[in-house]
Fold this sequence. Notes:
By secondary structure, the protein is an alpha/beta fold. Helices cover 34% and strands 15% of the residues. The chain contains 8 helices and 9 strands. This is ComF family protein.
Amino acid sequence: MGGATVGETLRAALDPVLPVGCAGCGRPGEAVCASCRRELAGLALQELGPLAPSPVPRDWPGCTGTLRYEGVSARLMKAFKDGGRRDPADLLARLLSDAVARAVAAVPPHGDRRPVVLVPIPSAPATTRRRGDRPTAILVRRAARLVGSDVVMAPVLSMARGTADRAGLDRAARQDNPATAMRVVSPEAVRGRDCVLVDDVLTSGATLAEGHRALRAADARTVRMAVCMVTPRRLPALALPLSSPPD
């Protein structure tokens, strides 16, 4: 599982020889210039505890994040996902790994010493064909290496046929997307395991909530969530009507 697509392999081969400009502002030079890195630091979340969208989806367990999705962070993620830029991947993966590590640390202790399973949110098949690879899976794979031996990546979620790509939908359309849009294609990989569901950006929460449902339906023992960025509308969990995590 998790092998590179043809698109990923070609990008990896071409990246070192293509001309580089900052993916955040376009200045010639580094993939992410010093000025944009300073701006990213200013977008760090002040609340590192669990986050949730408003309204809170049913059975929401809380989600860890690293940056606000606005300004340079939004430009970087858009350039990475849909602008054909893969050179910011290492930086974005480092930011994501911080949120993943906090989600892993929140898994309750028990006698099972197996690694926590990192499950990337899938894209709709048409979106994968258009992009030529799977940007979220790229970030999760690199973040898993940074977190270390406590985790293992398993891209076991799949979108149902005919499901729209939620990235292009507004809040109402996201909520109207089919409630059973995802399925676990290899249930044995998550059955009885602690999982962290991983996405790039938390917006309405509909996609993560659906992934959470699918993993719990496949008998995952616990499911936490982690994202690289959250939209400014997200709220700290302490402000939410949540008495305790459902896991």
